[in-house]
Amino acid sequence: MATLLDRMFGLKAKRLADVTGQQGRDAYDALGIKVDAKLNSMILGLMELEAATSTELARRTGLSRQLVESRIRQLENAGQVTSEVDPADARRRLYRLSKSYALSFAAVMDVMTDFEDVYDALWEEIGVDVSDAISRLERALERSSLTERLCQVHPKYKKQKEKV
């Protein structure tokens, strides 16, 4: 019988993110791509937007601005991203992909596109489109939070919540 620890959704989601992230980095290493796969969202975001502030990248990726800034700093330290003062607002910085890494970024785009085919085959193998399911889960949680759902399923928590 599965224990509560075995059933914890958040822990399973974290493990899945960890294993797919590590296997993505392993694939990049095997293919000779000199970009950290965990930074894909920043690279793809900047490829889409061409130039963006950390706030714009956070909005586009759904990641926190702090995490975006940490990842952008890694790319900038590696010379893969450049930054400049935003001409429209001197308080902001605009980030762009470095032209010297254009071939690496093109390889990232190619591999990420091909990985979508791999994921489609994986979804077929397991009988669930996990990407679609996660999108539906995100929308459901936007409509009603976990706290609201907990109080609906277990009314004893509604009284505790009202005290706070």
Structural overview:
69% of the residues lie in helices and 9% in strands. The longest helix is centred in the last third of the chain and has 25 residues. Strand 1 and strand 2 form a beta hairpin. The protein has 2 domains: 112 residues, Orthogonal Bundle (Arc Repressor Mutant, subunit A), CATH 1.10.10.10; 37 residues, no CATH class. The two termini are 36 Å apart. Helix 4 crosses helix 5 and helix 8 crosses helix 9. With 164 residues, the protein is mainly α. The radius of gyration is 20 Å and the shape is globular. The chain is built from 9 helices and 2 strands. The mean pLDDT is 91.
CATH superfamily of the largest domain: Winged helix-like DNA-binding domain superfamily/Winged helix DNA-binding domain
Shape by Cα distribution: globular
Structural class, from secondary structure content? Answer: mainly alpha
- Sheet with most strands: 2 strands, antiparallel
- Write the element-wise H/E pattern from the N-terminal end onward: HHHHHEEHHHH
